[in-house]
Amino acid sequence: MTAEEIVAAMDGRLHAQEDGRADAFLPSPVVQNHAANLALLPDGSLACVWFGGTMEGMGDISVWCSVLAPGAAQWSPARKLSDDPGRSEQNPVLFTAPDGRLWLFHTSQPGGRQDECEIVARVSDGGLDGFGPPRRVGRFRGVFIRQPLRIGPHGEWLMPGFRCITPAAGRWTGSEDDAVMLVSRDGGESWEARAVPGSLGAVHMNPVPGGAGAMPAFYRDRFARQVLRSRSADGGLTWTAPELTELPNNNSSIQAVRLADGRIAMVLNPVNAAMSSARRASLYDEIEGEAPGEAAPSAAVWGVPRAPMMLAVSADDGETFPLRVELDRGTGAALSNNSREGLNRELSYPSILQDPEGNLHIAYTYHRRAIRHVRLDRGWLARQLGVQAARPGAAGQAGSVP
């Protein structure tokens, strides 16, 4: 789709197809939209939060939200949930606490300096309409978030994060980032950071509770090799060192969820650095204006294409993902964050959840111009996996959904 076609489609209307799939482009008044996260609200509404403005890292980047009410066929107009003109507010996450209050967490940083970010929270007693003033979470300079919170074995709040570490010389590059679990035992009032051992380059930690054994967590890989996985035997408080899985990763976000039948479904770009020579200097090279030699040498890999968008399913708690279905395809060009001129073509940063009726909902970045929502009815997955299972030699092969 061209930039003009995307803009014309951003009306929030769900378009149903005969195979049980429906999709929509969420409304937004800004030119760049990225990093969606889905959440079910207590009233049954499906909420999507993301960040938007002119370009990632700019001071006009704020958190936005749209809602799909139960039974509705159109997403609501986007509303702005944060607005600090001096900082780039990114990676929002909604969390309904055990007491029913709704929390919005997001990061806040100056320019492209992720190593100087803070985590900010707003709390509401009245859903999306009642958020109080922003407040800083802990004293975690440089700790970023991306994935949903979980409840620990004794009621702890577990917020996965990663440390954006400044190198000894030059600016942040991502090469020294590692994973932490932020733990609160007093309902979000105070937090402690627990390091994940051996997690250099492992970011966007995504725990997946609900299995019979040790809990797995999956990670984005800064070095664009494979999705990483570690395990916790104590409900998410401590973790083993991350190890490479069979799934490729391009140093872009993934997200996984436990399905009602016990399987794990993950959405991702099945691409890594070995599959492409495309590279860029850094995530923020368009806004940093770095002088020659200012940036530290980077082992982190940036610029690998971010497409196609794929759904992968595991029946062995994340050991293997033999069942894979392609949801969307494109060039995935990610050498620029420029949305206004249509230079970015990525399909990235997916979020996934399953609603009480068994439908799968997936939201992801579309060319950094829009957030796309895909709903797959409860029979869709069974049909797709059935087709793959019946196809000779189908294990590990990608089916295609137009």
TrEMBL record:
Domain of life: Bacteria
Domain Sialidase: 44-362
Name of the protein described by the UniProt record: Exo-alpha-sialidase
Organism lineage: Bacteria, Pseudomonadati, Pseudomonadota, Alphaproteobacteria, Rhodobacterales
InterPro entries the record matches: Sialidase (IPR011040), Sialidase_sf (IPR036278)
The species this protein was found in: Neotabrizicola shimadae
Pfam annotation, one family: BNR_2
Cited SUPFAM superfamilies: Sialidases
